C-alpha cells in the first residue's frame, strides 16, 4: 500500500481508506457519527471556491469537512 497521509492531501475524486483519527474525543465522536470510521473509504468530490471546506463522499452520503479537521484524519491513498 502507499504511504499514509492526511485526508486534506488527497486530490479530488481519488479515494482513500481511513486508518487513524487523531483528534479530541469530542470531535472524534462527531466524526464517528458522520460515518468517518477506521477502514472506511472516503473520496473528496468537491472543493469550495476558496478551498475550504471540501465535500467528501462516504457511505453514500456527502459531508463537508474543514481542512483543519482533515489534517487529523490519516488515510491510505487507494
Q: Can you describe what's shown?
A:
With 78 residues, the protein is α+β, with helices and mostly antiparallel strands. The chain has a single domain (5-77), classed as SH3 type barrels. The chain has helices spanning 25-33, 67-70, and strands at residues 5-6, 16-21, 41-47, 54-58, 61-65, 73-77. Strands 1-6-2-3-4-5 form a six-stranded antiparallel beta sheet. The model has no long low-confidence stretch (mean pLDDT 90).
What are the key terms here?
2 helices, alpha+beta, globular, 6 strands, 38% strand
Q: What is the gist of this entry?
A:
The protein has one domain (5-77): SH3 type barrels (Roll). The protein has 78 residues and is an alpha+beta fold. It has helices spanning 25-33, 67-70, and strands at 5-6, 16-21, 41-47, 54-58, 61-65, 73-77.
Amino acid at each position: 500500500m502507499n504511504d499514509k497521509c492526511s485526508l486534506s492531501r488527497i486530490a479530488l475524486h481519488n479515494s482513500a481508506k481511513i486508518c487513524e483519527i487523531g483528534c479530541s474525543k469530542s470531535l472524534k465522536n462527531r466524526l464517528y457519527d458522520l460515518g468517518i470510521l477506521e477502514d472506511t473509504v472516503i473520496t473528496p468530490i468537491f472543493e469550495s471556491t476558496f478551498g475550504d471546506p471540501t465535500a467528501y463522499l462516504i457511505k453514500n452520503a456527502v459531508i463537508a469537512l474543514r481542512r483543519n479537521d482533515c489534517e487529523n484524519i490519516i488515510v491510505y491513498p487507494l
